[in-house]
Amino acid sequence: MNASRVWKLLGLAGVAGVAAGGVVVARDQRRRSRMTPEQVRDKLHARVAEAQGLDERDAAT
């Protein structure tokens, strides 16, 4: 396999990776846009509470 073919394949793989990343971002954006501000706030509070609980358990061991 010559060098130009390798670069072409790497370029195509990069384009495919960017496209896949865009799909993931778009899906996440659609999910977030369906949430109300109250739902976002509740989710963030739950994540903070979970993180604080993990920190307290780590300190106790």
From TrEMBL:
Residue stretches spanning the membrane: 6-26
Stretch list, region Disordered: 28-61
Organism domain of life: Bacteria
Biased composition (Basic and acidic residues): 39-61
Keywords tagged on the record: Membrane, Transmembrane, Transmembrane helix
Name used for this protein in its record: Uncharacterized protein
Organism: Nocardioides acrostichi
Taxonomic lineage from the root: Bacteria, Bacillati, Actinomycetota, Actinomycetes, Propionibacteriales
